[in-house]
Write a structure and sequence with these properties.
globular, 32% helix, three-stranded antiparallel beta sheet, 222 residues, alpha+beta, 6 helices, 22% strand, Peptide Deformylase, single chain
């Protein structure tokens, strides 16, 4: 076996110590990062009962009404937002499809619906966009109204959760809404006017536990 001359041993020892120190510093940097520097992993926040409700539905969901005391508790509760994991889940995709099929069903024939109306206190609404070509229905998760402007106008309103009634409510003619795009997970802002702006105001009220009858100047039976 070849013997290393003693004059090289000190140099090799110093080099070894330097490498060891560098590796130790790197390990500490990777493992002792401050908590605020560690990327957060978005978690699924749908509860088991919410998932079960969505999965158990057929082609449409039951619409909650104020006539039922248990339904009313849901309709009067504030709704929670959805995480990135929620929006990427099969549960959200199915919920969005069910909300659309429910609001457009012959039994309902509505122009908008909010998640609390089908039993989930989540910030999701489906709105018919009368301001777009083809007047499509679109789903908006994590919807917020950022701004209201213009002179409020008194107009007629009804609600799938308050059957057999109609009322007149003052609503703003223009709104700016923000929501999460499920495709990009980015926040999108949109300016809406006219009747579609009224629908957005009505549906986002549902997410705060507010019903149109709370704001109506008058309510009558059909």
């Amino acid at each position: 076996m070849m013997k290393i001359p003693e004059k090289y041993l000190d140099a090799l020892s110093i080099a070894f110590m330097a490498v060891t120190a560098a590796v130790t510093i790197l390990v500490v940097m990777l493992t002792d990062r401050p908590a605020d520097e560690v990327p957060e992993v978005p978690e699924l926040t749908f509860t088991e009962s919410e998932i079960s409700l969505v999965e158990s539905a057929d082609s449409v969901m039951r619409v909650l009404t104020i006539a039922d005391s248990l339904d009313l508790k849901v309709l009067r509760a504030r709704s929670a937002g959805l995480s990135e994991a929620d929006l990427r889940s099969e549960t959200f995709g199915r919920l969005a499809g069910l909300m659309l099929s429910t609001v457009t069903s012959p039994e309902q024939d509505g122009v908008g619906i909010a998640a609390p109306q089908v039993g989930l206190n989540r910030r999701v609404v489906a709105v018919q966009r009368f301001d777009k070509e083809g007047e499509p229905f679109e789903v908006y998760p994590n919807i917020q109204i950022d701004s209201l402007y213009g002179e409020p106008v008194l107009g007629p309103e009804g609600c799938l959760s308050i059957p057999g009634k109609t009322g007149k409510v003052f609503r703003y003619p223009n709104v700016i809404v923000s929501y999460t795009d499920p495709g990009t997970m980015e926040t999108v802002r949109d300016t809406v006017s006219g009747f579609t702006a009224v629908i957005f105001q009505h549906e986002t009220d549902h997410l705060e536990g507010i019903l149109y009858i709370d704001k109506a100047e008058e309510v009558t039976s059909l």
